Amino acid sequence: MAPRLDLLPLAGFAGLMIGAAIVDLRRRIIPNAIAMAACLLWPLDLAITRATALTTAFESAAGAGLVLAAGAVLFARGALGGGDVKLLAAASLWSGAAALPALLLLTALLGGVVALAALIPLVLARSEGGQSSESPHSGAALATPIPYGVAIAGAALIVTISLHFG
Known about the structure:
166 residues
């Protein structure tokens, strides 16, 4: 069986998303190089696998631009980290305009799961030892950074892989 060279950009994108999730879990930061590499792989994927019409590529880029602009507003208000915004914009390129709503909805759903998972240790600490200095109702608990890159990467992988194989 011949190797499927058309899957190389997708494999690279998947590796970048997994790397972003791991780094975000460990350090609560997503390096700019990851989002940039995902953006640079996207035209290669278009050229090799999709033979997409130029208008569809422009629609994808416009959707990613809108996500970046909306994300910049959320970043300015402290609701999202800068790395999360850039990663979501890069993932938006790969999802395309047609699947962008699915990407955003799935990211929001997975983000809720990640946020709940981040609160579990705080709730357990409070139930085991009485009052914790970081109870779920304290300012410290609410200021705890959530590794939202995990949700973005998970949603991006689900949507993008389903587009390639669905």
